[in-house]
Amino acid sequence: MIAQPLTLGRGIAAAAARQPGKIAVRFGTRAICYAQLLRSIAGIAAWLEREHGIGPGDNVVLIGRNSPEFIALLVAVANLGGASALVNPRLAGPEIAAIVADSGARLVIADDDPGAALDLPVHALGDVAAAGEQISAAFVDRGEELRPFALHYTSGTTGLPKGVPISHRSRVLSFLGMASEYGCYGPDDHFLAVAPLCHGAGLAFALAPLYTGGTVTLVDQFEPDVVAGLIGPEITGLFLVPTHFRRIFELPAAAQDALRDNRLKALISNAAPLPQSDKERVIDLFGEGRLYECYGATESGIITNLRPEMHRLKHNCVGTPFVATEVELRDDAGNPVADDAVGELFSRSPYLFDGYWRRADESAEAIHDGWVSVGDLARRDGDGFYYIVDRKKDMILSGGMNIYPREIEAVLLQHDAVADAAVVGLADADWGETVHAEIVLAEGRTVSADELTALCRAQLAGYKLPRSMNLAGTIPRNSNGKVLKREIRARIEAERR
Fold first, then answer.
1. Domain spanning 395-496 has what CATH number?
2. How many whole angstroms separate alpha carbon 109 and alpha carbon 90?
3. What is the mean pLDDT of residues 335-348?
């Protein structure tokens, strides 16, 4: 076979052969060129193989914050034919232990002490990187196109995290689709990666610049003033989640004004819905022609994308299908629904996963004849644009009526005194469920429940109105910005007891 397999390692090696001295990764004051990155990857791979026998089909747990060493280790494991099981370092010890046990890994590599009792060898990421630097090894790539290079774990917003194996082919084709759609992935581009690399989107948006020969600047954690200072004459692409935008809106006026002078080709929002009011503020701040909002899942990759010119025309919309992606909306019987009707969203593309790790029942529930659903409900308008209505598991059934929390949250967020909001269904003996809203106020602002109810009544049917509200200090979210509604329900149920 003459055609070479699509693997992450081959793409990075090709970029290095083209411009070995080009800066691949920036991190704080460090600047690492492609030749240095390849030497680091090769050395770490040699150490893993020599010390632990890591090879095709083996998993290695990686628990780390954003860093060049994180990327080098992940690629090294992939080049040996293995996969990195990525664990959020913010998880508690028991949560980490559960994922490590589920992954079937051979060893654990972590920034710090994982804080969990593990029956596996545990090495510090810095020590592994340092050991690799002492080894002079040839760059090898034994990765296989259809074999996983990463094992992501779902955010657990509705239950226990599930392992999602992502193949080389899936992600490489995603990178090429992203380069086509966003125009900020190429040899002349510089991407600012802020989101955690342990999450699917954060990793994909950070690796795509390396596969396409550009430069990526990594940020260990999001600080609005730091990120704002980095967006200057060099950065051409940036991915942020809605929570990040809201923190940028809190910066002093002078800092916000400085952001208007930017070279961004693409400003991408994902992971959680970006309310229409926030979209308008983002466009006013960063300029027209830059904002993209994409919708997707770890299991499916990017599914839809809303282009910059459509944000003021299609409100609360996530766009049209992404490159090489088919989308269908189906009713409970599996039949396609008509325009403007709500249905469960299924997608089919080269970016799909092949099933959950060691979970045949959940895999069969998500995959239907080559189409994948993660349980999101959506509608499609007559122009072929899609609108996410809500998570199927978050839908509230009250008095026989279907109520979608996301619709109510969007209305509540229109009030300038509301900084954040989350709506959940609470068990009720008469109605089955009633609508409850958690509200976080903007600093120094007040608003009455009657005022918020009046706002909702002006735009929503009576049965959708919140029957109870609570002023909260924060809305519980995971590190990717998704609301943990099960935590809200559990807290209220405990209070009721």
1. 3.30.300.30
2. 15
3. 95
